[in-house]
Design goal:
heterodimer; A: 332 residues; alpha/beta; Rossmann fold; eight-stranded mixed beta sheet; four-stranded antiparallel beta sheet; 14 strands; globular; B: mainly alpha; 0% strand
Chain lengths: 332, 305
């Protein structure tokens, strides 16, 4: 395994200032915090050279998971291993060598490039930072080579991001990740902000680059058809918890978890009458998670046990891993 | 350099600038005033700092066009016999230097504090409370306090030597929270953007991210408040000088000129106060008009038609 994520937990304190934490109730001053549980004990293994996708609706914690793995957020609990070396508790200095091995591509190409820097400067900065001894000519050659690979004319180095279209910017964003020659790339909805025609180009580019550089992807998306196309393995998240982890074929042909079933039934299909499975109600607030299985408030198959006991991810026949009491008991 | 000028000529900036008569006129007036102030030793007919050229018999002469006026002194003379025109040019130079110096000091403190409190959450509360405390003191109160203390400690004679740097220091220290708040607000907006996260994923240090990535993106509001702050600093200096806590009489700024003439205004010598007053108002007005124009230019939501 290239990357192993073990029981990762990320919480955000949204109480605000220190003074806001104190409440006056019943004649006593109490200190209380409001905590959003964005990621609750997620475990995923990412094998080398493969693409693992994380899907789920907005607010389910998939971007937070990606950012926590990249240590943009420090995790509250759990472990992240890179080639069996624990990296979640390293200081930013100790983490520096890993920064060249794992890189990230962001969602919004209009916000992910510094508007005051030229493309050349954006692409040279990571190389200069990680290999300060590299001669100027070598840096220039590497930047030109990477630009060529992502399909941007290397002569554009003196241009500014605002002179580029969304798709071209996303290519630069990918190029920036590639300049340090990483093995592992976390892509946080890299195509969600692009036109459909450009989405296909960027996806193909990413798949070509994967082949060429033996890259491993952790691919965050809410677009199920894209995920089916690009991934080897798919992880489905709901309210910060992992519901189902399976190979792409397994998951799309026979989803096991009731939430995955509902999610997949929402994909529009040609020539078929809409067979949507409607979920009732809203997603509960991540501030006060429901007890037991987080999905039980909206699940058709919920029983008493689902309201009390948190299901654990366990393997079912076919190789999928599902966190559901119903599947475990054989009633779904 | 030529490249820069070529880019400037074809930029939006010059396009809008040359189509706005107020901005053009303000800029022209400001340019004339600043050039006149800084070339004062070359163009002024007299040197007000050289006591040997001053004749007390010339004191309180009215402007040249009045009946008793002398052709030697275009705008008349003050109570010590210095030509008003020359003294005003030298005085304006002092006012502008103090204004720019104070704003430079404010900007340096304010930008550093603003970056730190916007980017490093732990420092935010403490730094911003310090800024609030600073803001709750009136500039003039601090200035009067420090100015009076220094005059006592150094004696009036020595005070003259340190008056200009001291005024820069006082006005600079009193107004930095303006910068700190503006910079902090734009840092808070910028730090949310993904290019900052990208810089963090590369592994860049906090200082480098603040300095190289965030600061360049927060400079346009800084530019806008800088113009207003220069005008404010010149006004503060004039007000302090008017109260007798600014520049001494033998090295007058515009404010101290206005004060020195104030005692004579009822004896008929109106020109000693009125001319520096008009000059001060013109200077502040054109700086503020230019500042307004820059603000409108940098905020496309305010474009007219």
């Amino acid at each position: 395994m290239l990357v192993r994520i073990r029981n990762l937990v990320k919480e955000f304190d949204i109480t605000g200032g220190w003074l806001d934490q104190f409440r006056f109730s019943g004649g006593r001053i109490e200190r209380e915090k409001t905590i959003v549980r964005a990621v609750n004990g997620v475990s995923i293994d990412i094998p080398e050279g493969r693409t693992v996708s994380v899907v789920g609706e907005s607010g389910c914690g998939k971007s937070t998971l990606a950012r926590t793995v990249m240590r943009l957020y420090p995790p509250e609990a759990g472990e992240v291993y890179y080639r069996e070396q624990r990296i979640d508790n390293l200081s930013s200095k100790e983490l520096k060598p890993f920064r060249t091995r794992m890189q990230m591509v962001f969602q919004d190409p209009y916000a992910s490039l510094n508007p005051r820097m030229t493309l050349g400067k954006i692409l040279r900065e990571p190389v200069h930072f990680h290999q300060p001894k590299l001669a100027k000519g070598e840096v220039r050659d590497r930047v030109a080579a990477v630009m060529e690979q992502v399909g941007i004319d290397p002569d554009w180095q003196s241009r500014y991001p605002h002179e580029l279209s969304g798709g071209q910017r996303q290519r630069i964003s990918i190029a920036r990740a590639l300049t340090v020659e990483p093995e592992f790339i976390v892509a946080d909805e890299p195509i969600a902000a692009l036109d459909v025609s450009i989405q296909a180009q960027i996806l193909n580019l990413m798949m070509d680059l994967q082949e060429e550089h033996k890259l491993t992807y952790l691919f965050i998306s809410h677009d199920l058809s894209v995920v089916e196309h690009i991934s080897n393995q798919v992880a489905v998240m709901y309210l910060g918890c992992l519901c189902e982890l399976a190979t792409a074929e397994e998951l799309f042909s026979g989803p096991r978890h009731p939430y995955t079933q509902a999610l997949l039934s929402a994909i529009p299909r040609l020539g078929k009458r809409a067979g949507h499975e409607r979920l009732s109600g809203d997603v509960p607030s991540p501030i006060s998670l429901p007890p037991g299985c987080v999905f039980h408030t909206r699940c058709r198959h919920a029983r008493e046990r689902c309201r009390r006991e948190i299901p654990v991810l366990s393997e079912v026949e076919g190789g999928s891993r599902v966190a559901c009491h119903g599947v475990e008991e054989g009633r779904i | 350099m030529i490249n820069f000028l070529r880019r400037l000529r074809s930029s939006d900036f010059s396009y809008y600038f040359f189509r706005d008569p107020i901005a053009l006129v303000s800029f022209a007036v400001l340019l004339v005033l600043v050039v006149a102030a800084f070339s004062a030793p070359l163009i002024a007919p007299h040197n007000p700092y050289d006591p040997t050229t001053i004749d007390i018999m010339d004191s309180e002469l009215p402007p040249a066009w009045a009946a008793e006026g002398s052709r030697n002194f275009l705008l008349g003379t003050d109570d010590m016999g210095r030509g008003m025109f020359s003294t005003m040019l030298y005085g304006m130079r002092i006012s502008i230097i103090i204004g720019l110096g104070a704003v430079l000091l404010q900007a340096m403190i304010g930008i550093v504090v603003g970056l730190l409190s916007g980017y490093i959450k732990r420092l935010d509360s403490i730094l911003m409370r310090i800024a609030d405390v600073q803001l709750s003191f009136s500039t003039y109160m601090i200035a009067i306090f420090i100015g009076a203390t220094f005059q006592m400690v150094f004696g009036v004679a020595n005070y003259e030597k340190i008056a200009a740097p001291l005024l820069i220091l006082i006005i600079g220290l009193a107004e930095w929270p303006q910068y700190a708040r503006t910079v902090r607000a734009s840092v808070l907006a910028e730090r949310q953007k993904e290019y900052i996260e990208a810089a963090r994923v590369i592994g860049l240090s906090k200082v480098r991210i603040m300095w190289r990535h965030i600061l360049p993106n927060t400079l346009s509001p800084v530019l806008v408040i800088s113009t207003v702050q220069v005008a404010n600093a010149i006004m503060s200096e004039a007000a302090l000088s008017f109260l007798g806590l600014g520049m001494p009489q033998n090295k007058p700024s515009l404010g101290s000129l206005i004060t020195s003439g104030f005692e004579y205004i009822f004896s008929g010598s109106w020109w000693i106060t009125i001319f520096p007053g008009i000059l001060l108002v013109t200077l502040i007005l054109v700086i503020n008009l230019l500042g307004d124009w820059v603000r409108d230019y940098l905020n496309p939501k305010l474009y007219k038609g």
